[in-house]
Amino acid sequence: MSNMIPRVIDIDNPSDGEKHLFERLRQDPDTKGWTVLHSLNIAHHKTQVLGEIDFLVIIPEVCIFAIEVKAHRYIKFDQGLWYFGRSSRSSLKGPFEQANDAVFSLAEYLKSKNISLSSIPIFPLVIFTHTELIAPSIEWHSREFCGVREYRKIPISKLLLNRATSYRKKLANTSTVRWFKPTDTRPTQIDVETLIKVLRPSLEMSTSFGFFRDETKKDLFEYTKEQFVALDAMEDNSRVVFNGAAGVGKTVLALESSNRVTVRGERVLFVCKNKNLAISLRRFHSNIDILTITELLELHANSEFVKKSDRNRNDYWTTDLPNNAFEEILNKENVPYNYLVIDEAQDILSVQNWLDCLELLLDKGLSNGRWSLFGDFELQNIYSMYQKNTLLSDFRLRCNDFSTYRLAINCRNIQSVSELSFSLASIKIPYRKFLRKSNPLFDSKYYFYSSDEDQVNKILSVIKLLNAQGFKASELVLLSKVSESKSISKKFESELKVVPFCFRDNAVQYTSIHSFKGLESPVIILTDFSEIESEQSKKLLYVGASRATEIVIYMFKDEVKKHLLKGIKN
Known about the structure:
Layout: E1 3-5, H1 16-27, E2 35-38, E3 55-59, E4 63-70, E5 75-78, E6 81-84, E7 90-91, H2 95-112, E8 122-128, E9 145-146, H3 148-153, H4 156-172, H5 189-199, H6 204-225, H7 229-233, E10 239-244, H8 250-262, E11 268-272, H9 275-282, E12 289-292, H10 293-300, H11 303-308, H12 314-330, E13 339-343, H13 352-361, H14 365-368, E14 370-375, H15 388-398, E15 403-407, E16 409-414, H16 415-425, E17 433-436, E18 445-449, H17 452-468, E19 476-480, H18 488-491, H19 493-496, E20 498-500, E21 508-512, E22 521-529, H20 535-545, E23 548-557, H21 558-569
Parallel strand pairs: 1-2, 4-8, 8-9, 10-14, 10-15, 11-12, 11-13, 13-14, 16-17, 18-23, 19-21, 19-22, 20-21, 22-23
Antiparallel strand pairs: 2-3, 3-4, 5-6, 6-7
């Protein structure tokens, strides 16, 4: 997939041909390593160079293409005049002249910037995306254009490489062209980086970032919807455990599962572990009873018992509260729910007393009732010491008649961003494939700190940099390895100008990795990692990084550097 600059095409661009070519260049897997610059809001561009070129395709070690796109359904060339559209006026200047002028303008502009293009081949190409050019002429060669049939028939990568081969062969056989050698391998990576630096639209971030943010949300939703096939495949099963790592869309699938039952007029109970996740889901799904397991238990327990109890005792949540709630539910005549959905199931199945209560709340119980469980039984179990095999095998002792479905397609995280997190945590990638293979808006990075003050200074620098790149304050979330109360963000709240996480729209927020499970944010800044060697630290690193839909920033104590260097040597 190409590196598209800007990352989106202007929504107001009237050319459906340009939009179509944009998507083909963006999605073709064989364009990996290519860079494509295209016009976006060019009326405000300070150089106007890109205003003269629809697409500038930089193919490393091959060539550069200046592409002119013509999306008209009717194009006519008659007696030296061009007609674009049946009702259009004639024009002396045709697409081939436009493409050649664009190449000349580009060369002149780069020359003014003291950038040498003496041995980088730049080729013009006209692509007719919706028609064929039926008027052959000695004025142009077949390598200079592409009609709709060829354009739609083969991958865009193959089309451009074929044209490049033809152009390079022509140059090699032209005796007057002394600057070109068939063995030349420009543009080099340095050439590409230099071209991007000079030609990248200066207003790219300010003009496109808001639109890109919306497009990313749309892409995430569409990618996640593709996972609905899992629900379709298991529709005839009354009890299913959906098992998958972070990023495979479990929460969205859990909600969709709930909605499918709700529309039939049945009562659904949606249970999760994380309070913030429950709050987030309730804001948009008022038709479903969405509760954390502890909210559910306190709702059904004796109110006087809850008031008098010490909620700071661990035994209260895992023993005293569920035992009291069990007695209260047992005395009720009606079973309130026809269907049970559990998200973050790996955090709930480990407490048998909680399952006892859910058993009573579900019609026909867990063994014979209808339910769907969604969890990561390998990596996200950070609340207990249960291992995957123990957790599910113990659950089978209670309820042995259920099906399982493996979710292995990551639809949330950008592949390169996710791969870095797994590398740092020394965890094998659990996905069969990633749906998001595009380049992130900003590279994920890790920093080393020597003290609390040093960590604060580095966090401030990162926040400033990300804000300058166009990220809103609310799109940045600091997640601590330790509890929120002990985090660097809490200690230096005023210096960092951050607030505890509460779904704010105008502030950088912070909380713990535990408290942010099930949620997501464009940017995640992981803090307080004094080590990443223990199994718990590896899990927390993985869980925290998986919350990012765009980039992850890591804050490691200096000691972690030794561990990383040791890993590289090995």
